[in-house]
Amino acid sequence: MKKILFSVLAVAIVFFAASCDESRLDIPQKGVTAYETFYKTDADAEAALTAAYARFVTYVPGRGNGAIYTPFKACLNNCGDDMYAAGSNFGDNDFMAALDEFRYDSGNEVIGNFYTGLFLANYACNLVIDNFKNGLPEGGVTATTKRAVAEARVMRAYIYFLLTSLWNTPPMIDHVIADGFPYNADKDPDNPMSHTDLYKWIAKECETAAADLDERKSTTDKNGAVKVTKGFAWALQGKALLFAGDAAGAKSALKKVIDSGKYALVPGDKYWQNFHIEGDGNEEKIFEANLDYNAGISAWGGINQRSTWMEANIWNWRSDHFVAGASPQGKYTGGVDGWGGLGVPQWFGDEFFANDGHSYRFDATLIHIDDAVYGMEYNNAEIAALSYEERKTSKLVGIADPQEGLYGQSFWLPFKQLVRSTDAVAKYGTNVRLNNNVIMRYAEVLLLYAEACLQSGDNGQALWAINQIQQRAGSKTISTSVNMDVLKKEKSYEMWLEGCRWLDLVRWGDTSKVAQAGQSVPKLFDKLHRAPKSGEKVTWENGSEANSRFYTVETHAAIDAGWKVGFKAGQHEFFPYPTSVMDKNPNLVQNPGW
Questions:
Q1: Per-residue pLDDT reduced to its tens digit, 295-331
Q2: DSSP-assigned letter for residue 299
Q3: Farthest CA pair distance, the chain
Q4: Does the structure show a pLDDT above 60 at 25?
Q5: How far, CA to CA in Å, does 477 sit from each of 227, 348, 351, 466, 470?
Q6: Per-residue pLDDT tens for 509-529?
Q7: How many other C-beta atoms can be found within 10 angstroms of the C-beta atom of residue 479?
Q8: Rounded CA gap, 233 and 29, in Å?
């Protein structure tokens, strides 16, 4: 699929090219031009905005120049109760597993990379805002400068939504700082802002900026999905107000998105496309980070930093733990191997399936081990010739690793995140997925709106919104009445692995399951390749060995290794500020418990 151009100037991203000194990102310091000749024209405003988009794509949903895995998806998903950070074995990919089991500290690599990356992106936005908020030196305020500043303000607001949600009261840096050290927002001597104040500031920024933003032209306007528009500003405003406890305000803002008519849920049979390249820029996308829009960009010159590089590896199934040459994902993914770093808790898959059945949504999200091993297409001709029933007793397929099986896996395997063969191209390497990173889709707006309606007493509109989600999903459950329990469950199914669950658990106080994180992690085995051992706590997929091939064994590796695991109230609601940042800023006060 041909990727989409931003509506800003399609210029090469030279201003913020990769550098060993990413702490200094303003244009003159990069040797491109001098202040005397830049920040003067509408073209300069467009170029600076393009550079801000590039930083946003790279450091917010992308990988940045730090760790090889995407911090965005790890920080927003790994702490949730609906996944395991798995791998080859306990200790594999441990800097991500530490998040999942709450064994991290202020030196955690993923947390540190994300925090510093967000401020690098914030800096790029501040450059646009500071230099063009008063218009041009000659010519004053123009339509271009107003729009450029508005887009940068909303990108900055989203960055602060993440900072606030994850770090409580981070320093408020709403302009380029020449010197000095910032304070935590709530301890700033000049303008103290609480956690709730920050959410209200985010909402106000979006409300103010919306007046100067373009509106998406229609549901078919692909360019309108990869830039900041009125629709995204209203959606973020509503989300921030909901997090601030202002349900009525959230409802009003979110209704603007709904009433605009510029967005719609894709049909149920196209639900899967939302998470693959076929769905880039579709009617459901309110804002997504456009990865491959510059024809001159190279694999190591930028695309690996913008994309979720190696996400295809870490979250695809553990290929080498299946029978050699018979990983069920091989044909689907185009041969991209996996490291098995994502597992599904049994309770979540069971609850989801009981609610949905084989809906469009469920089948695009999870798959049972039987359907994976017996039902998927294989490249191997001998296996391909076997029927579903024949594969049930064949040793040509299955989980062959006798020691670890599939570590961190239940009888439900994750399917939503698997890279499809069309998601990657040889130009950049087949483990670099190029479908855009979704920041906000219309389904989330409907769910946020439903919650705001419930909290403000409008159950009729809440039911309408939730029914929209259920009906599109093809779910066997269509609610006739709704409450917060129904909302929470629908959101957990619809938005699985999209960065919502962890933040919701914290703000709702639903932390009972994450308090148990790390205490028990399953290994999934195949009795044809490894019989259960004496003393193991075994669970058979169909209740007994007689009618089951696959079984899980309960393990306690983290506890056995001496780790203290699980969410602790008063500490884990927010991440610690990175040690590297604390060491440099004497004004920054660490979050409680760290």
A1: 566 676 677 777 776 777 889 999 999 999 999 999 9
A2: I
A3: 83
A4: no
A5: 35, 16, 12, 11, 7
A6: 999 999 999 999 999 999 999
A7: 17
A8: 31
Q: Are 407 and 93 a contacting pair, CB within 8 Å?
A: no
Give the angle subtended at the CA of 164 by the CAs of 462 and 20, to the nearest 5°: 130
d(Cα 62, Cα 285) in Å, to the nearest integer? Answer: 18
Beta-strand pair 285-289/437-441:
antiparallel
Provide the token pair at 426. 């040889």
- Cα–Cα distance between 586 and 580 in angstroms, integer? 12
Is residue 147 within 8 Å of 8, Cβ to Cβ?
Answer: no
Instruction: Give the count of beta carbons closer than 10 Å to the beta carbon of residue 455.
Output: 18
Residue 460, exposed/middle/buried by CB under 10 A (0-12, 13-18, 19+)? exposed
For residues 87 and 93, is the Cβ–Cβ distance under 8 A? yes
CA–CA dist 454, 479 (Å, integer): 14
Q: How many CA atoms lie within 13 A of 130 on its CB side?
A: 14
Positive or negative, the Cα torsion across 134, 137, 139, 142?
negative
Rounded Cα distance, 553 and 43, in Å: 62
Query: What average pLDDT does this structure show over 184-191?
Result: 97
CB 523 within 8 A of CB 407: yes
Q: Is 53 exposed, middle or buried (0-12, 13-18, 19+ CB in 10 A)?
A: buried
pLDDT for 301: 64
Residue 305's nearest CA partner among 5, 10, 2, 22 is 22
